[in-house]
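Researcher: Structure prediction, please.
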Amino acid sequence: MINSMKRYFTAKLFLISIILLVNMFSTSLSHADQAICTHVLDGDTIIVLYDGKEEKVRLLGVNTPEITGFNKSGEYLGEEAKRFTIKMIHGKKVNIVFDNKKTDMYGRLLAYIYLEDGTFLNAEIIKQGYGYAQKGFLHKYLNEFIKFEQEAKRSKLGLWAKKTKTKKTRKYVASKNSTVFHNSNCGHAKQIKSYNLIIFETRKEAAESGRRPCKSCRP
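Model: Predicted structure follows.
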């Protein structure tokens, strides 16, 4: 009898926490501003057309690994995190929700980003293992994001997968404006802007797009 009561109250508390979490996300979305994602700079930084002008947005509450850039080296899974964000929102309408602080010291907007179908991008990046919960300052989803990170760790997703067991997969990429395709690690490939980037899962898919292989990297 006592064990049955414990299971009942545990299940009830779990259900209440889920309802509160859903309501919290829904309430935020009701106060959202609309924008269009025009560029993806890295996994946690994007550019949107918002209020008639382009604005750089830093996703609140999530940190993704650095990508290779001017005078800096890329980190493990940085490019994959960027590609994930590109796949999720590039060129799409999004809903922007601000917290207590609207901009950071660099003038970037600080925001939560929701897709039109309600997907919470900031949370999804952490859930899929492409980023860490940002613990440097308080925000309203801090505890939820930490839980998502712990779940990703337990499931060994993305950043939390054992690197020694991660299979190396060769990707093929091209620019929308080019008739050539490359290996993803080709120097020419790294110069392609995110808004022009096309990713092919196989060499056959790249060749069937009508493009020819790069003479430098010979994919």
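Model: The helical segments are 2-29, 78-89, 121-127, 142-155, 203-208.
Researcher: Thanks, that helps.
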